Amino acid sequence: MVIYQVSDRAATLVIDDAERRNPLSVATVTGLIEGIERALADPEVAVIVLTGAGDSSFSAGGDLSSSFFDDPIGNHHERGRFADLLRVLWRGGKPTIARVNGHALAGGFGLAVACDITICVDDAKLGLPEVRVGLWPMMITVALCRAMPQKAALELMLTGRTITPDEALRLGAVSRVVPRTQLDRAVSETVAALANTPASVMLGRDAFMAVASTDPDTALDRLQSGLAAVAATLDAREGVTAFAEKRPPVFDGR
């Protein structure tokens, strides 16, 4: 089950199964996709926050107790829903924040890393333990290789060892590590910083995602076009004018 809440221009999606450490069943992944799509369609929502219920786990990953793994071939398309989740996260255009309130393992770790900004409590356990049960973290490979050195990602996949939030921070897998008592404040401050941003944020984020895995020449062409698009926005005109007039800009997202 996924709880959907909107407050202060942020849509928060809560994976609500704390007793089982918030597993990513097919139903839960589908609920996350639907929640993100709902947030993307709402003009009052500027930021999307993903988190887990309770205090112990963000998500422990795939739901191994479900029928998800009973029929490897028959459930192939159902397992593809996680790929759909990553696609909608990256292509949606609105900034995403992972509020990592506890352990993030396997697909839960991949989901946290896939968000634009990942804020993690300092007592969480992070890692990719799939190999210990004869599995492999296939689809989250893309998210990990976008965020951290490939050798480091592969070592975690091969060994299944868990890491601390501080090590994840050094590797680039998370953005910030905070004491548990400061988690909500850190997330709220980040939401506030993103909630009233100019149109350039959406255009710039889309450009960043588009060039993350392209060759330099193709990337430069895409970014040159992106700069033209940003320069044509009313927000850019307002920002430059406000800078010249020595006043705060007033953006309206156009």
Short overview:
The protein contains eleven helices and ten strands. By secondary structure, it is of the alpha/beta class. α1 links the parallel β2 and β3.
Give structural notes:
There is one protein chain. Helices cover 46% and strands 16% of the residues. It has 254 residues and is of the alpha/beta class. The chain has two domains: 2-195, 2-enoyl-CoA Hydratase, Chain A, domain 1 (Alpha-Beta Complex); 200-244, no CATH class. The strands form two sheets. It has a six-stranded mixed sheet with strand order 1-2-3-5-7-10, with helices on both faces. It has a four-stranded mixed sheet with strand order 4-6-8-9. A hairpin with a 2-residue loop joins strand 1 and strand 2 (10-15). Helix 1 runs parallel beside helix 3, helix 4 (107-114) packs across helix 5 and helix 9 (200-211) packs antiparallel against helix 10. 39% of the residues are buried.
Just give the CATH class of the largest domain: Alpha Beta
Uncertain stretches of 5 or more adjacent residues? none
Helix content percent band: 40-55%
**What is the gyration radius calculated from CA atoms?**
19 Å
Q: Please count the helical segments.
A: 11
Reported for the largest beta sheet, the result is: 6 strands, mixed
CATH topology of the largest domain: 2-enoyl-CoA Hydratase, Chain A, domain 1
Extended strand count? 10
CATH H-level superfamily of the largest domain: 2-enoyl-CoA Hydratase, Chain A, domain 1
Question: How does CATH name the architecture of the largest domain?
Answer: Alpha-Beta Complex
